[in-house]
Write a sequence for this structure.
């Protein structure tokens, strides 16, 4: 979506959140959903500090309503972790929340679940940037295998995992196969997601080598 779309949606989302609080209360599941929606819109507008506050609030409500080990809490942990990773550039906080999402997902989802693969991709990416390659690589390989089985649309998810894994391998030394995987991933980004922030992280890893 464009910033114009998010700008139009922001006042409507704020109104919806206020309505939910009045009708259902501050700690209701409906309020958590409305809070998350507004946070997502604000993230799209680069209002990241307010988005963080709202994502944190959504997480607290979902932990209260569904439990700290619930899938709903895992989704909230993931959203907050991704904001820290892609927007706020706070790797320790990103790893903290993405690891929580992955742990919950691992205990509540089947191993090949696409949502769990997204958690692993994001966590692996954060660990890769922290140079924790031994921890990052298994997560990225698991995510890649899941996306391959699921035959992800246009191969975008496959390319994201493939590119991240190639970055982790190439950071440790030259590798012809990993370089080919990296180049193939970039070709997919150029075609389908040229402005995606997660794809940009993969592009940036080449500059750091």
């Amino acid at each position: 979506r464009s910033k114009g779309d998010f700008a139009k949606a922001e006042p409507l989302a704020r109104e919806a959140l206020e309505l939910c609080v009045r009708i259902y209360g501050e700690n209701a599941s409906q309020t958590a959903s409305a809070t998350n929606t507004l946070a997502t819109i604000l993230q799209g507008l680069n209002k990241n500090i307010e988005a963080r506050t709202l994502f944190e609030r959504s997480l607290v409500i979902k932990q209260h309503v569904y439990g700290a080990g619930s899938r709903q809490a895992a989704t909230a942990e993931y959203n907050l972790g991704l904001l820290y990773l892609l927007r706020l550039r706070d790797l320790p906080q990103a790893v903290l929340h993405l690891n929580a999402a992955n742990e919950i997902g691992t205990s509540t989802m089947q191993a090949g679940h696409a949502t769990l693969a997204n958690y692993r991709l994001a966590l692996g990416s954060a660990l890769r940037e922290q140079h924790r390659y031994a921890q990052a690589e298994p997560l990225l390989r698991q995510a890649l295998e899941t996306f391959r089985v699921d035959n992800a649309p246009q191969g975008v998810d496959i390319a994201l995992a493939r590119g991240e894994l190639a970055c982790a391998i190439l950071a440790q030394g030259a590798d012809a196969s990993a370089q080919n995987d990296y180049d193939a991933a970039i070709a997919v980004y150029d075609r389908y997601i040229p402005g995606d922030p997660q794809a940009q992280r993969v592009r940036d890893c080449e500059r750091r080598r």
